[in-house]
Amino acid sequence: MNRRDQFMHVPRKSGTERASSERIGDFEEYKERFSEAEASTQASRCMDCGTPFCHVGETYGQVKIGCPVYNLIPEWNLLVEQGNFQEALVRLQQTNNFPEFTGRVCPAPCEGSCTLSINEPAVSIKHIERTIIDIGFEKGWVQPRIPTVRSQYRIAIVGSGPAGLAAADQLNQAGHQVTVFEREDQIGGLLTYGIPAMKLSKDVVARRVRLLETEGILFKTGVTIGLDVSLDQLKADYEAVILCVGATEPRKLLDVPTSGVGYAMDYLTSVTRQLLTGQPVQDQHEMKGKDVLVIGGGDTGADCVATALRQGCRSVVQFGKHEMPGTVRATDNMWPDTPNLYTLDYGYEEALAQFGRDPREYLIAIERYTTSETGQLTGVWTVHNEKIRHPDGRIEFQAIPGTEKYFPVDTMLIAIGFSGVEQDVLRHLAVETHNGKIKTTSYATNQEGVFAAGDARRGQSLIVWAIREGREVAEAVEHHLRALQQTG
Ligand SMILES: Cc1cc2nc3c(=O)[nH]c(=O)nc-3n(C[C@H](O)[C@H](O)[C@H](O)COP(=O)(O)OP(=O)(O)OC[C@H]3O[C@@H](n4cnc5c(N)ncnc54)[C@H](O)[C@@H]3O)c2cc1C
Ligand code: SF4
Question: Is 84 exposed, middle or buried (0-12, 13-18, 19+ CB in 10 A)?
């Protein structure tokens, strides 16, 4: 009989991490899955609270609750606790097409909504999820599911990120003929060229792509829709087209030096391309012996810090505009909302071990750049700000006198977010947009038979949301196909 008070006796554990000093020497994954025994012990911390918020997956105003794909978390926790990993895998695959991705890199909003997390560390949901699927692959329980009956409908999916892959998986399993078009040389979208290999091994992505291929999905790489093949051509050749083209138009920083400045995405992509193909990175993406500055306090910036460390940078700092988050929830960020708390992400932990300090600088602004005679960036003068909240809700940043500081910089990477779908992609596809994203009604665009999902529709987000959108757009396409069938 399971005791539902195990959380009172068993402390939370996450997966074992390789030592910082060791892991910055390579691009291998930095974390290992639980052993079966560890996973069972950790799953026993789930108190089966009766009204679980962890799997709700909804947004109420600004408050985001639980797992966006509605993973059946308490159910698989119980099965894992009982040592029944095979049945846990069956439950997991009912809701999540790619748990090996989310189990590694999801920020786990489920854990922020775990009832236990009101006053105790949450259940290690994400890492249990990873352990279930990794064991599933290791033991050969994940096998190709090849549809036995095929419909006459052909579906074209543009973009092979998690949204495109999830939609492809759903529609292929429903028996339709699915082709995925990708402009890059590799399938995976940001799973491949974006998220660094030490967080998500490219072998893990390739393993899933091979499985989808065996199940009947056709992948065409090196094809840019809008350039090599027009959208009109796709509409003529396929009964439905789904645009999952992502949202990687970078926010720009104006008036920067002409040399020594680059965009985070270009940098991360070229380093991963080097790992996959051996193609050397350009000088501007080689950080060995350099002083590196990352602008932007988010996760993309954190990935740049970790990547620069692996290349052997001399120093690395990351500038953020906002204040340092607290270690306890603020009153406007209470459970079950996703917590905004100070954490030492993997790259920061590594920088701390390497250079003795957390690389993040908060509430900081660049006053001016210093450059060489050739226009090459050599450093930045900065000032720390005070964040002032006015009674009418306005927020203002005011420089604090006497806080001026100089940082030597060889390379500055801009990681201040994304404004929407890439401008070039939108120009060539010519679908209606809103605020830089593709405008849809129930996932349908303004063009007959053309749908959109993922970051291209909702803006830069998370893998788990892309998977949910992929699943939902597949349902919308099913409705469309049924309507086609009825009209003859
Ligand atoms: C650096 C970085 C790190 C991140 N880390 C995390 C993380 O740790 N955890 C997490 O949950 N989320 C993370 N994210 C966010 C997450 O990766 C995205 O939300 C997710 O990948 C979106 O999926 P998508 O399928 O909508 O688009 P994408 O993954 O962006 O895929 C879009 C694909 O469309 C292709 N494409 C575009 N136009 C065309 C065209 N005209 N013809 C053919 N192909 C085209 C692109 O080449 C690309 O492969 C990160 C994002 C970045 C940038
Ligand atoms: S997909 Fe993300 S939110 Fe859902 S259970 Fe896994 S870690 Fe939690």
Answer: middle
